[in-house]
Amino acid sequence: MEQFREMRRKRQQLSEEESINILQKSTAGTLALLGDNDYPYAVPISYVYMNGTLYFHSAMSGHKVDAIRKCDKASFCVIEQDEVHPEKYTTFYRSVIAFGRIQIIEDEAEKSEKARMLGNRYNPNQEEALQKELEKGLSRMLMIRFDIEHLTGKEAIELVRHNKKTEF
């Protein structure tokens, strides 16, 4: 397993539980891959999180798919809060970055299961409509699995201080 650097500002680091909670609540993030000519390629994407793994869907081809096939290392960033305070020259933020290995799901049963899970996340309780959508489009899409190896979350120091005050 890879060695990941520790966060420099440890007081601002979120717990693993808080970081996972952000992944569970949020609906989109930015997937970063090694793209063409080894330029970083970052793409906004919707996802679903389950048990240490992120799942995405994709077209059958394109820059993202080529990058995944070329290199299985990736990172994924979610910003939960981004509140600019111009008078203080700062931003009150909370964000999470996941590092891990990414792959295209080849198993058809797993692909179908994860596509259904993603569909239910964004359109819950619509089983009949989801079934029709999957029958129509599953053969023309990919499902992607991102196994998280390292997860780190961080918040603005102002939020850390505010949370400490409200604890007492």
Task: Outline the fold blueprint.
Blueprint: E1 13-14, H1 16-25, E2 28-34, E3 40-46, E4 48-50, E5 53-59, H2 63-70, E6 73-85, E7 90-104, H3 108-122, H4 127-137, E8 141-155, H5 157-167
Antiparallel strand pairs: 1-8, 2-3, 2-6, 4-5, 5-8, 6-7, 7-8
- Overall body shape: globular
The share of residues in extended strands comes to 35-45%
| DSSP summary: helix tally | 5
Compute the average pLDDT.
88
| Number of β-strand runs | 8
Specify the biggest β-sheet. Answer: 8 strands, antiparallel
Distance between the termini: 40 Å
Task: Describe the model.
- The structure is a single chain.
- By secondary structure, the chain is α+β, with helices and mostly antiparallel strands.
- Helices cover 33% and strands 41% of the residues.
- It contains five helices and eight strands, in the order βαββββαββααβα.
- It has helices at 16-25, 63-70, 108-122, 127-137, 157-167; strands at 13-14, 28-34, 40-46, 48-50, 53-59, 73-85, 90-104, 141-155.
- Strands 1, 2, 3, 4, 5, 6, 7 and 8 form an eight-stranded antiparallel β-sheet that branches.
- Strand 6 (73-85) and strand 7 form a beta hairpin.
- Helix 3 (108-122) crosses helix 4.
- The radius of gyration is 18 Å and the shape is globular.
- The chain starts with 12 loop residues before the first strand and ends with a helix.
